[in-house]
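Lab notebook page, bench 4
Experiment: in silico fold of construct C2
Operator: M.H.
Input chain length: 157 residues
Purpose: comparison with the prior construct
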Amino acid sequence: MFLRILEEVNLGGLNVELVFTVLRLQLLRDSASLLPPAFFLAALVTLSRLSRDSELIALNACGIGPPRLYRIVLLLALPVALLTAWFALWLQPEAASAIQDIRLQQREQAAQLAGLQPGRFYVEENGQVVIYIGEITDAKRWAISSFSIGAAHQRSW
């Protein structure tokens, strides 16, 4: 995931300033699928450690048997399940939509500036606006350092 984003930046498909925003949104998007296995592994490691250290035998001797341990694990799993549902039903679609919007804006920006060359005049808006691009400083970041915009006057003779 991270390497694909860096590759997009290197190829000019993504602006450098948006890298951390896209990474944050992708982390939110993928959290719904990461929480359940993380909780399962945490519960598994905890119970295996209790078993290895003979703590389960000591807990059983104190009157805390397997049904009570299962109830504790299930009580801990309930907030994780609710959080996962919230991530999956609300945050994941929002993050995916925001990532799609960012990529769409980047493509539109690239398409607008892809045909521009420094030192040329461009006529826009049906001949009403003339734009002169003096210098493009960084083609990958679409930075234009000098340009002029003027209104074209049509003379009728």
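Observations: The two ends are 62 Å apart (CA to CA). The first strand starts at residue 120 and ends at 124.
Next step: discuss at group meeting.
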